[in-house]
Amino acid sequence: AQSVTQPDIHITVSEGASLELRCNYSYGATPYLFWYVQSPGQGLQLLLKYFSGDTLVQGIKGFEAEFKRSQSSFNLRKPSVHWSDAAEYFCAGSPGGGADGLTFGKGTHLIIQP
Amino acid sequence: GAGVSQSPSNKVTEKGKDVELRCDPISGHTALYWYRQSLGQGLEFLIYFQGNSAPDKSGLPSDRFSAERTGGSVSTLTIQRTQQEDSAVYLCASSFGNPPDTQYFGPGTRLTVL
Question: How many A/B residue pairs have CB atoms within 8 Å?
Answer without folding.
Answer: 59
